[in-house]
C-alpha cells in the first residue's frame, strides 16, 4: 500500500475519533458517535497489516500478532459486557492502566530497536512515555484494587511518606536524565522500575472519595503517553488520538477539582499533609429527629416538589432501581420529581448519571448542581440518599473545615430534608453535618435500599 | 509510519489537536462524563496500531515478548473500551422513548 494512502486512512481514523467525542455533546448522538470511533479504530488497525514501510518492509510475526489480538478480545469483551455499572470506575481504571502499560512497552521496544539511530526528540519522547506510562499503569492498577476493595479504600499514609515520595520523584527524574545522556538499556530499565514504583506511591495516599480525580488524571496521563509514542513512531494518528484523550482527561480533572473546591495538588498529596481530624465536638449527644418509613412516605406524598439527592451510598446499596420506583410512584401521584446530581457524586466523573440511567431514569430529570440549586427554595422535600459531604452547609459556613469552599447542593433551603443514612457517622471528609440537627430534618436510618423499599410499600399503601 | 514528517510538522499537529480536543470535550454534557472517560479510554487504545508495528518488526525474543504483551494489553483497552462505552450509551438512549411519551402526554 502506498504511503500517502496509508496516511490518509490514518487521518480518516483521527477524524472518526474527533466525531466520537463530538457525539457526546448530547445523549442523542452519543451512541452513534461511539460507533464511529470504533469504526475508525478498526480501520486503523486493519490497515496497518497492509502497509509496507519502505525502510522496514512488511510485518513479520503475523500469526503471533493475530493470536495476541484474539486473546485480548477474549479477555476484554466479556469483561466489558459483564461489568456492573457500580463497578464501572474500576473497569475504566483498569483499561486505562493497560493502555498506559502498552504505550510504555511500545516505546521501550522502539527505543531498543532504534538504538544509536534514535534522534534527541525520540529519546525525549521515549523517556516521557516510559515515565508517565508506567506511573499510569501501576497507578491505575492500584486504583482498581482500591475500588474493587481488594485493599483498603482509606488513604494509606506512613511516617516519612512525603519524604519518600519526594526522594522517589527525584530519583525518577535523575533516571530520566541518565537515559537521555547514556541512551542505553540499563538506564531505561532503572527508569521503568522507578516509575512503576512511583505510580504506586502516588496513589496509595489517595482516599476513596478522591478517586474520581485520580482516574481523570491518569486518563490524561495515558493520553499524553500515547501522543508521545506517536511522536516516536512518526504516527500522526497516535499523536492526534493521544492528544484528544489528554485534553479530555485534563478538562475532567480540572472540573473535578473545582467541584471539590480544592487544588489538584492538595487532593493528591493532601493525605500526607492533613492533620488528623480534631475530635468531633460534643455534638454526638444532641437530639435528632428520626422518622419511620411511614412518616417519610407521608411527607413525600404531600409534597408538590421533591428533589432526590443521590450519593455514593446509593450505589453501594445498589438502590438506584428502588429510587426510580419511588420517583415513579410520586410522579404518578402528581408530585414533581427531579434528581440533584453533585459533580463528584459517585466514584468517577458523571458516575451517578450512569447508575440512574441504568435504572431507566429519564435523563431530563437529572439536574446538575447549578441548575437545581436555585430551585431548592421552592422544594418541599429534599430526599438525600447516601450522600453527606456534598450537602453539608459547613462548606459555606465554617472556614477551616476540610470541605470549606466546596460547592454544595443547597438542600438546607428546602422546607423539609430527609436523610437516608446508615448511621450518624459523618461522611467521608469526617465532618459533622449541622443539617442533621435542624428542625426540618428527618432521619431514616438503615441500608438505603431497605429503607427505600419500606418507603415505597408505605407509599403504595397510603 | 507516516513517512517524511518533520518534528516541526508533528509539533504543529500536536498543538492543533490540543485545541480541537479542548474545544470538543468542553462541549460534552455533564451527564455523559463517565462515557466520555471510557470513550476517551477506548480511543487511546489505538496504541494497538503502534504495538502491531513494533511487534511486526521485532527480531529479538525480548522485543517480541514485550511487543506481543503490548498488543494484548492494547487490544483489551481498545475493544473493551468501545464495548463498555456502547453499553452505557445504550442505556441513555433507551430512556428516550418514555421521556418523549410523557412529553407528548403533557402537550395534550
Key structural traits:
heterodimer; A: 462 residues; alpha/beta; Rossmann fold; 3 domains; six-stranded parallel β-sheet; 17 helices; 6 strands; B: 108 residues; mainly alpha; 5 helices; flat; disordered C terminus
What does this structure look like?
Chain A has three domains: 1-82; 87-273, no CATH class; 282-461, TPP-binding domain (Rossmann fold, 3-Layer(aba) Sandwich), CATH 3.40.50.1220. Chain A is α/β, with parallel strands linked by helices and 462 residues long. The radius of gyration of chain A is 25 Å and the shape is elongated. Chain A has helices at residues 3-23, 27-48, 62-82, 88-114, 120-147, 161-182, 185-203, 211-232, 236-260, 264-273, 293-301, 312-316, 320-332, 351-358, 369-372, 394-397, 448-461; strands at residues 305-310, 336-341, 366-368, 381-385, 416-421, 441-445. In chain A, strands 3-2-1-4-5-6 form a six-stranded parallel beta sheet. Chain A starts with a helix and ends with a helix. Residues 273-283 of chain A have low confidence and may be disordered. By secondary structure, chain B is mainly α. Chain B has one domain. Chain B starts with 6 loop residues before the first helix and ends with a helix. At the A-B interface, helix 1, helix 2, helix 3, helix 4 and helix 8 of A face helix 1, helix 2, helix 3, helix 4 and helix 5 of B.
